[in-house]
Design goal:
2 helices, alpha+beta, 33% strand, Alpha-Beta Plaits
Length: 113
């Protein structure tokens, strides 16, 4: 099992959702978040160093069985990239998911996803 976490631009959420649905991936969690990727140089404002502002982003979490991991990543890549790719398009993290338990039934493992 894998946990796929994608940090994307808010304006690309609808495209990513449609691409996931087309790839038969319908179980997702979406969270609004903010962050900063590539660091810009610090600015000096009234004698103090001021770091770059945080930018609004969308976090998409998808737990899936191993056979759906690459399909999910490909769908997100195609839908989240703007044009030929721009700074700020986001990142995808794929991590091992050790256990998944469905609270309602107590099922665990791949069937709980």
């Amino acid at each position: 099992m894998k946990l796929i976490t994608a940090i994307i631009c808010p304006e690309r959420l609808d495209q990513v959702r449609q691409a996931l649905i087309k790839a038969d991936i319908t179980r997702i969690t979406v969270t609004r978040c903010s962050g900063r990727g590539q660091a810009e140089s610090l600015e000096i404002y009234r004698g103090l160093e001021v770091g770059p502002e945080l930018v609004p982003k969308i976090r998409v979490d998808i737990a899936c069985n191993d056979e759906f991991a690459q399909v999910t990543v490909d769908a997100i890549l195609d839908a989240a990239r703007r044009g030929e790719g721009e700074i700020g398009d986001g990142k995808i993290f794929v991590t091992e998911l050790q256990q998944c338990i469905r609270i309602r039934t107590g099922e665990s493992g791949g069937t709980a996803i």
